[in-house]
Amino acid sequence: MRRTGTTRRGALTVTGAIALGAALAGCGDGDSGEGRKGSAPAGAREAAAKAESALRLRAARTSGTLLAQYEQVVTAHPATAAGLVPLRDAVRAHTEALSPGADGTARPGAGESAGTTAMRGADRAPAVSGSPAPSGSPTVSGSPAADARTAVKELAAAERRTADTHTAMLLTAPPELARLLASIAAAGAAHAYLLTELAKETSS
């Protein structure tokens, strides 16, 4: 990969920080709906909590799969780490923010699925550059492309698909989760653009 200077790397780092901030901001207004929740029958509140937990799990799995793809590319093409690690870390933050229980309300019970356990393994993935995903984390089918440029292009496409999936989930999400999904989808679109530009500067 050709040298791109500190400007490009700085932009990627700042974007990762913005993405993390957006995820946290999306969670920030959790008290706004407490009064409405308190006025609903207990059965309705429980059903709503279960539905939100299931939606969070689906969204977290989607981000977890993207995180696993980042890990694969960084491991297969270490020269891309400087550009990819800030974005990968932002995706990890998104996965953690989306996971059931992240909002302090929709927590899975003792009989949680194996998929939930696997996702929590992804959340605990080490943030060391080039480190492989843990054995319990979601996996992606196949291996990254043999050349780094194509692998980065594939990541850009994966970011767009993930953003589209999160956007579609807005239709059935409660307000607080909808704001979080919207923030993460917007960050994913920005990631896709940056990855497309990064691919142009990456040697095959």
Could you please describe the fold and organization of this structure?
With 204 residues, the chain is mostly helical. The protein is 68% helix and 0% strand. α1 runs antiparallel to α7 (175-200), α3 runs antiparallel to α4 (81-98) and α3 runs antiparallel to α6.
Which helices and strands occur, and which strands form pairs?
Elements: H1 5-26, H2 34-39, H3 42-76, H4 81-98, H5 114-123, H6 148-169, H7 175-200
Poorly predicted runs: 1-6, 25-35, 105-136
Helix content: 55-70%
Q: Helical region count?
A: 7
Radius of gyration using CA atoms only? 18 Å
How many strands, what sense, and barrel or not for the largest sheet? none
Order of helix and strand elements from N to C terminus: HHHHHHH
Helix/strand-derived class? mainly alpha
Task: Estimate the strand proportion.
Answer: under 5%
Shape: elongated
First and last CA, distance = 8 Å
Question: What's this model, at a glance?
Answer:
With 204 residues, the chain is mainly α.
Name its key features.
204 residues, mainly alpha, 7 helices, 68% helix, disordered N terminus
